Amino acid sequence: MFDDLIEEARKRRKRLAVYTQTPEQRREDRLRLYDVDIEYRQLPPAGPAPFVAIYDGGDFAGAIDREGVEQLLAPPVVRPGSTEGVSEGYRALFDVLAHTLVTTRDRNQLLAASRELEDRAFRVGAGTFRASFQRLSAFETQVDAYRHLASGTGLDIHIYGAGDWTPPDIEGITYHLTDDPAVTRHWAIAFDGGGNDQQACGLAARETDGEYTGFWTYDPDTVEEIATTLDAVD
Amino acid sequence: MNEQDGDGRAAETTERPLVSGPAHLADDEFYRALADRTRRRLAYYLTMQSETTVEDSTTALVGWDVSGQGSMASPSDHKEMRTALEHVHLPMLADAGLIEYDPDSGTVAAEDLHEDVEWLLERSITTDPE
Predict the structure, then answer these.
(1) What is the mean pLDDT of chain A?
(2) CA nearest A161: which of A144, A146, A145, A174?
(3) Dist. CA A12–CA A166, nearest whole Å
(4) Half-sphere exposure of A106 (CA within 13 A, CB side)
């Protein structure tokens, strides 16, 4: 069940160390959207521009320019298969923050995360890709991106959602209309990796009063659980 | 030695000659310790910390490297930097009397530096082209 997976992600906390000349700005730090422990370090006045280090269970996982983090917090939403406007550091940070809970009212943040996963499926080009949009009307703005995803690949794409809108027929895309709360209350994605576990990826987020709490993952077992949950509502 | 300033600083050092200032500035070991960007950055970073760790010093330096870049410092960058700090940079800075370093506990702290030394450190950072 998605809620169990979300609780599981809550237990795997990461720690961020923010190196900055102005630690007094900590209160409005948008990094607080993530369920991570944050500490601040004072940089000397002529030192480098602020940066952020990420620790996973005490181990250094990566460090990136503060501006790169801003990109993740206000991410560019690009077409699958397009790497324009997305820095290498952004992708690395995205990887590092896998399995970290994020809570946001900004749908764009989840949309950008979804796009990362769609992009991975696009590059692999084969396998089964499942996405729950809560309501099919939410899929309307995504039709072009998914037409591109379906026509450029051999992906078997399944879209889930409440039937409040009639989507166009697109070869490679199967629609699953449902009122099951597992679908209507959650934003979920599962890509099986097309036979390569290392490429498997997924996302699960719960919507409560317009606020989303969820995570993305590269763990094949977790991805399979998301896929199984979506399969079961059919 | 105090002739080289030439940017308005000279007047100040005339009033307070370096002879009565920090012993460091006439010490070859001091210049050897600072003849490397990583050590200058580390010594300068530590001037802002009361006491810290080898771990934090390592992270500060690899983060400094990616600051302003679009890339990310990896765990292997971090490991490499930590080894260099432990085997080369920290002992050199400690021998020159710029920092206190305890290899057993992994703690690192700046020595109480003379303001001229701090000024020199900051100047070496601000004039660094990188």
Answers:
(1) 86
(2) A174
(3) 39
(4) 14
Instruction: Compute the average pLDDT of residues A36-50.
Output: 92
* β strands within chain A, DSSP E: 14-20, 36-42, 51-56, 59-65, 102-104, 128-135, 156-162, 173-177, 186-191, 201-208, 211-217
**B72 interfaces chain A, CB cutoff of 8 Å:** yes
Contact yes or no for A125/A96 (Cβ under 8 A):
no
Q: Residue A89: which of B47, B56, B70 has the nearest Cβ?
A: B70
Residue with structure tokens 């490679």?
A: A172
pLDDT (0 to 100) of residue A206: 93
Q: How confident is the model at residue B6 (pLDDT cuts 50, 70, 90)?
A: very low
Q: In the prediction, which pLDDT does B71 show?
A: 81
Q: How far apart are CA A34 and CA B126, in angstroms?
A: 34
What's the CA angle centered on B19, arms B18 and B25, to 5 degrees?
60
Q: How far is Cα A6 from Cα A188, in angstroms, rounded to an integer? A: 11
What backbone torsions phi and psi does residue A19 show, to the nearest 5 degrees? -100, 120
Give contacts of A52 with chain B, Cβ < 8 Å: 63
**Count of domains for chain A:** 1
- Does residue A7 carry a pLDDT above 90? no
Would you say the ipTM is above 0.85?
no
Q: What residues contact residue A208 under an 8 Å CB cut-off, 6+ apart?
A: none
Instruction: Give the pLDDT confidence of A102-155 residue by residue, as tens digits.
Output: 888 888 878 888 988 999 999 999 999 999 999 999 999 999 999 999 998 999
What CATH number is attached to the domain comprising A83?
3.30.870.10
For residue B14, what pLDDT is reported? Answer: 43
Selecting from A17, A51, A62 the residue whose C-beta is nearest the C-beta of B67 gives: A51
Domain of A126? Answer: 2-233
Under CATH, which architecture does the B10-126 domain have? Orthogonal Bundle (1.10)
Q: Which of B71, B74, B77 is nearest to A90 (CA)?
A: B71
Read off the tokens for A12: 């795997």
Domain ranges of chain B: 10-126
Contacts of B75 in chain A (CB under 8 A): 59-62
Cα A115 to Cα A187: distance, rounded to the nearest angstrom: 13
Cα–Cα distance, B36 to A18 (Å, whole number): 26
